[in-house]
Amino acid sequence: MAALIYASRADDCPYEVALVTGDNPEAPGLDLAEAEGVQVVRMPAPAKDKSQYFKALQTVLEDHSIDLVALAGFMRILPDDFVARWEGRMVNIHPSLLPKHKGLKTHHACLAAGETVRGGTVHLVTPDLDSGEILGQVEVAVLPSDTPETLADRVLIAEHQLYPHVVSQYLSRTRDFDWITNKVGELALTLPKTHYQTSHGSPGWKVGTQSSSKFFAIMWNRHHGEESIGILVKCSGQDEMAQLIDADPDIYFRPAYYGPSDWVGITLDRPSVDWDHVADRLAQSWELVAPRRLLEAGGR
Q1: Is 108 a catalytic residue?
Q2: Of 53, 87, 191, 194, whose CA is between 20 and 30 Å from 204?
Q3: CA–CA dist 133, 192 (Å, integer)
Q4: Can you give the pTM of this predicted structure?
């Protein structure tokens, strides 16, 4: 936790620590966070019915508009419904080179196996213990004289370097044009009879044959003085465009030059993008421009 706080003070760090909480209101880490000027919520320790604790924790996280949860020594098993709410937005650090040595007493297991390399792993949190996508790892040599305690101390030093670095990388991807483009492409190419093609140098996706096709999605990379990275999709007309922008101005925008042709923009370089929503808009755009014969044949 301290490593994440101190790393956040670097000028180029893409995150800020907005809140520290936990399952022990007397934890020394909360005192440290308060001393460093970080918002702290001292939640009561979970009672026998732990579901009430996680409901309260969810409320606390929502009230503070948290985008990413970074677990740091939180040793409780998380309920599946809680994990599902934070899918792709909760990370953990584990003192082993996963998938090796999941769970507890990892240093004992490493030494018992006679391994010469140890390390730490940052991974996404899923319902399966220590099994989420690996985001980054660091290796630590095992010395002949190591005990579980000495090895743990050295791995901890490496973890303090790894965790802020990986969290920064993971959050920065949401503002990386290439990463966003690949994510959109994965969704666009699941639709029938689609292919990739650039439009005036911008990545785009068309429906139809190579010789006769229409664009249904075009990437937008801070064009015409705007700051956003997004995707342009077709809408049914100017009325729908106005309704979308009025209802969600942080998500939708009217793109210069494309707007009069019923293209609406969806901002994608922002936290907590709902990619299911983006997929739905891509599908609607696809249906608006797809050849009639393709729609009559069953469409998507």
Answers
A1: no
A2: 87
A3: 29
A4: 0.77
